[in-house]
Specification:
- This protein is mainly beta and 267 residues long.
- Helix content is 3%, strand content 54%.
- The chain has a 15-stranded mixed β-sheet.
- The two termini are 19 Å apart.
């Protein structure tokens, strides 16, 4: 997940072993604007990681909120995604809940990971559909936005990580490859930032993520034509986005209240 929710993976690049311990030890509070190909802002993403203890064991509570308006079948449709997950410091992802609203339709997905299996259920249109998949030792929950890299230890140039990915929308698993292809300097707003460029390949999809040495994502290029860039909470929430196209309805011109969300994780 706006997620994005990472699991431990055995990473043995030539430059040394990378472990996931930093993923749960460092707090994160990340706001990103979502921009279409013409640079019109179509929404925002907010994701957090909060280090906590659960049952006396260290880990992190992860959360994701994404609010977008995108064209679906030539109609502007609101897409609202919210969710939470627990990332154990030793075992990785252990459980998650997601809620997706597409227009007036809602879908709930929940699951738990134990013993190399992910088991859960999809609730939609009054029906519950159970599912189960084999997964790697520490599975990743895909969000389609490349934010999984936010929970990865920072890769150095030339390092590669291979991660198993479960996509709760397509109900499929795949192997993702993350490679740091170099160091780049970006200008985001008024900031000049030194970043690590990460190429993430999952099946036919290629996502590029730029991350600072403080493990903060500042830019994402998705395979779906959207770009995510770091913004402030004030830019994300009040009033119409600064980059809206003239004549487009603002994001808050219609009902923007979120659907009822899963309860906060009880650690």
């Amino acid at each position: 997940m706006t997620g994005s929710l990472v699991y431990h993976e055995i990473i043995r690049p030539r430059l040394g072993l990378v472990t996931p311990a930093r993923s749960t030890a460092r707090p994160m509070d990340l706001w990103l604007g979502v921009f279409a190909a013409d640079d019109a802002r179509v929404g925002y993403v907010h994701t957090t990681s909060t280090p906590l203890l659960r049952d006396g064991e260290p880990g992190a509570r992860l959360s994701l909120t994404a609010d977008l308006r995108v064209p679906l079948l030539a109609t502007a449709t609101r897409v609202f995604l919210t969710g939470k997950a627990w990332l154990d410091g030793e075992r990785g992802l252990t459980d998650f809940e997601l809620r997706l609203r597409l227009g007036d339709q809602e879908f709930d997905v929940r699951g738990e990971v134990e013993g190399g299996r992910l088991e859960g259920a999809l609730d939609a249109a009054g029906q519950t559909t159970p599912f189960a998949f084999p997964v790697g030792e520490f599975p990743l929950l895909a969000d389609g936005l490349g934010l999984a890299a936010a929970n990865m230890p920072l890769l150095r140039p030339g390092q590669t990580a291979y991660l198993d990915v479960f996509d709760p929308i397509t109900f499929s698993t795949s192997k993702a490859k993350l490679t740091c292809t170099g160091i780049e300097t970006l200008t985001i707003g008024e900031e000049t930032l030194r970043t690590h460029r990460i190429e993430m390949i999952a099946g036919p999809l290629n996502t590029t993520v730029w991350i600072t040495s403080d493990e903060e994502i500042v830019r994402v290029e998705t395979p779906f034509g959207f770009q995510l860039r770091k913004i402030s909470p004030e830019e994300a929430l009040p009033g119409p986005p600064r980059h809206e196209k003239e004549g487009d309805p603002p994001l808050d011109s219609a009902d923007t209240s979120p659907p009822s969300t899963p309860e906060a994780a009880g650690e």
